[in-house]
Amino acid sequence: MDSHESRELIKRVVAEVLVAPPESVHDDTALVGELGAESIDFLDLVFRLEQSIGVRIPIERWDQYVRAHVTDRDGIDRITPAFVQAFVSEIVQAEEAEGGARGRMG
Amino acid sequence: MKHRERVVVTGMGVVAPTGVGVARFAASLRAGRSGIGPITAFDPGGLDCRIAAEVPPDAVDVTRWVRPPKAAKTMSRAALFAVAAAGMARTQAGLGEDDHDPERLGVALGIGGMGATDPDLVHVQAEAVIDATRRSDGGRVDGPAITRAYRARTNPVNVLRGLPNLAAAHVAIQNEARGPSASIATACSAGTQAIGAGLRMIQNGEADLVLAGGADATVNPVSVLGFDLLGTLSHRNREPERASRPFDRDRDGFVIGEGSAVVLLERESHARARRANPLVVIAGFGTTCDAWRITDERPDAAGAVGAIRRCLEEAGAGPRDVGYVNAHGTGTRMNDAIETMAMKGAFGTLARKIPLSSTKSMIGHLLAAAGAVELVATIIAIRENFLPPTTNLERADPECDLDYVPNVARMASVDAALSQSFGFGGQNACLLVSRW
């Protein structure tokens, strides 16, 4: 999946999770401030990302990522589809590195 | 009569198998129309009971009653019905945003235990077992593999839908009801008891208004099988509309129904101050427990009689004041005989003169929602001057020898009527409604 495809996929999943019209979800749309996301929606989002990219994502990985990047109260609006995409690519890279390491050991 | 301020109903909402909205529901009660048919929610092959009273798909307009739309994700079917019914009650009551204190608006809902079985989770569990068994050696059942397969398939949102108090929470969120919230799980008497609990909140000064009612939606394989294993369901699959036949000699159990009703209870002075139109007065509530057997009623009907007496006593009413009784009337052999005995115990020789009908003959048994939907039917009887019939009453049972308003609705002007419910576990509950 190239980065354009992955960006479109994430916007589609975000729209599904927040039951928002797809055309209202852009790369920089604030999930909390503009689309009304609450904590259960992030659990739903992580579950659906797992299903669509086929990689297991423990919820604490998301929580750690958010804590590392959102350090002040206003920063909550930094959580956008682009932010989610950066998180997903970190997960996917980690998964590939682990798979590669396993391959070398084998 | 106790010197307490009266509590009135200023709005009603109903989601029933025979009609969504009070007007449609009332029209089908008057016509004696059945809402029972073959189960469509899932393939009931393999079950002995394959009929139910379902709310038609898309009968509830989610976009009208749920804000924002994503809130529906964490609503069970029962919660969605409750939210819609509460929205209708509020609309009829003309309750605005600035005419009440949100902290004085409460919620009391009867909720079902078996309804917590979310259909999505049932499927996920089944798939997980199949998948884990297929992967393991020789079809051996591997517990941890099942758990892992379940983990990979389960959306946390679906887990949340199974929380029993979420229906009340959603009703509170949708209506900014920041006062007390109660979720009552007393099986088939839950709807009646929740409205009684709402009445008490107002009488005790904890609230000025309460959205009170019940909701249940259990037309799923686990619940239908469960009630059938308990021997309570009708197997008259070939004639669904004739399957629910309370007080008839050939009755063979109840038919599961789904739906919700919510009424807006309001302190009379509060209703007057905001110029609302009271529909009826909730004149009394009585409740007892048999403390006897889990599924058997006391053979002398003493628990049910006690609930009726307490209810009349609170209202300062005597047997002569009751013009109609909406029966629990499930259509099981035991309920209908014991309920008939309870009427005689509570009303003596007058029992034969007081019409007693079971609307479950048409709408099925809505379990935790039953008492609430039946209270709405009782209010309709008073306000529209007709008694809903007990349909399918074709052959008299010597144990059931009262006036059950057989088969056709009857014109009648009634000033006070009782709605009664009896649940597994022995809970008995009655509400007395009187003309405003």
What does this molecule look like?
The complex is a heterodimer of chains A (106) and B (436). By secondary structure, chain A is mainly alpha-helical. Chain A has four helices and no strands. Chain A has helices at 3-17, 39-53, 59-69, 81-105. Chain A is globular. Chain A starts with a helix and ends with a helix. The model of chain A has no long low-confidence stretch (mean pLDDT 90). Chain B has helices at 22-31, 62-65, 77-93, 119-135, 143-153, 156-161, 166-175, 190-203, 221-229, 268-273, 302-315, 333-347, 360-363, 370-384, and strands spanning 7-16, 19-20, 37-38, 51-52, 105-111, 181-184, 209-216, 259-267, 280-289, 324-326, 356-357, 386-387, 410-411, 416-422, 427-435. The model of chain B has no long low-confidence stretch (mean pLDDT 94). The two termini of chain B are 16 Å apart.
Attribute tags:
heterodimer, A: 106 residues, mainly alpha, 4 helices, 62% helix, B: alpha/beta, 35% helix, globular
Poorly predicted regions of chain B: none
Which sequence of SSEs, written as H and E, runs from N to C of chain B? Answer: EEHEEHHEHHHHEHEHEHEHEHEHHEEEE
Backbone structural class of chain B: alpha/beta
Helix content of chain A: 55-70%
Instruction: List the quaternary state of the chains.
Output: heterodimer
Q: Give the mean pLDDT of chain B.
A: 94
Provide a count of the helices of chain B.
Answer: 14
**Which ranges of chain A are low-confidence, i.e. pLDDT below 50, for 5 or more consecutive residues?**
none
Q: Quick one: overall form of chain A?
A: globular
| Separation of the first and last Cα atoms of chain A | 26 Å
Give the strand content of chain B.
15-25%
Number of strands of chain B: 15
The geometry of chain B reads as globular
Tally the helices of chain A: what do you get?
4
The share of residues in extended strands of chain A comes to: under 5%
